Predict the structure of Peptide methionine sulfoxide reductase MsrA.
Amino acid sequence: MKIARNIVLVPLIMLFVSCQAKVKDKPLTENQLTEKTILSAEALQKYDTAYFASGCFWCVEAVFESVKGVKEVVSGYSGGKEQNPTYEQVAYGRTGHAEAVEVFYDSKIISFEELVQVFFGSHDPTTYNRQGPDRGAQYRSIAFFKNNSEEKAIRNYIEALEKEMVYDAPIITQVVAFEKFWKAEEYHQDFERNNPNQSYVRAVSVPRLNRFKANFKSFLKEDSH
């Protein structure tokens, strides 16, 4: 099994900047939106889906959007039992959900196993209920699986990472059967792309994306280099 040796560990920087500050952000205006090809729900149905949680979904969405074969990434909530969760509820730990992403991908270009490498290579899976400056169970590390094959792929990769002693601490990522994904409010979608000067984006999200790009160049789309 190929092991991604250049693991991106998110430093604990600028603790005064956190993902929870997002509740104060206002919905985007039409002039703030950047151009992006939007695929219809019908068009997306032909692609496979994968689900991950690894901290602020702004960061995670941006990472997966840069990966070849990924057609769309949606920010949302998963891992809990509550119906129709809102950002205010999830961000302040009032549900069992974590901030998560739904990844639509072309399996002819990139495999689920490779997406698992992207997941582990773009965050620190050894920190309990924490990612960078963000703390709380809503920012925990979760790799969701929809079938036995996906579960095996995740567990095999974790085993390989541990065998190679890639991390100095135990991997505590939850490996969870996927149940339901709830799409986040519209202003959270493509937030990093549409708000490059927002304080959290500049201090945490963009640096995290750039570290991933530097270490996983072979995984990137042509326009993401």
